[in-house]
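For reference, the entry.
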Amino acid sequence: MGGPPGSGWAYNDVRVNLLCLALTARFGRSLADVLAEVMSPLGASDTWSWHGYRDSFVDGVPVVSGGAHWGGGLWMSAADLALIGDLYLRGGAWVTESWRPCPVKPEYGYLWWLNDTAKVMPTAPRTGRCARGNGGRHLLWVDPARDLVIVSHWGEDVGQLLAEVSAAV
C-alpha cells in the first residue's frame, strides 16, 4: 500500500498485533490482566483466556496477539463474549468512536464491521455492527436499534442466522 498515512486500507492481523503491543507498553502489564478488570464486574466466567505465544514477552511482560492463531490470542465462551456485546450495546464515548466509519473503508470502524451500507451482512439489518474472527465463523453482533446481541461460534452461515433472529425480534 503506497501513499500518505490514512489514504489506504488493508485488513490484516498485523495492525491488531501492533495495537496489542502498543497497549501492553502503555499499561505496562499484560492485556489479560487489563481485560480481567473489565470481565470480572460484568460477571464473566473464569474460563476465558488471552495469551501470547511462548516467546511473546517484552521486558518480562507477556504480549498477547490480537487473533487466536497458532495457539495465541483470546479464547472466550459465547456467554462471556455476549457480556462484551452487552457492554457495547450500552454505548458510550468509546463505542461511538469504534462505530465511526473509516474514511477510506466506510464499513469498518475501530475493529468493528459496520453494516450501514449492508455490505458486511446483506441479509441483516443495517443497524448492526459486528466483530468477526476465524474467517467470519465467530461472530459478535450488536444491534442497538433492536437491543440485540448475538454470538455465534463456528457458524457456517451467520448471515442467515442474523436474518432469522432479526426478523423474529
The longest helix spans residues 13-27.
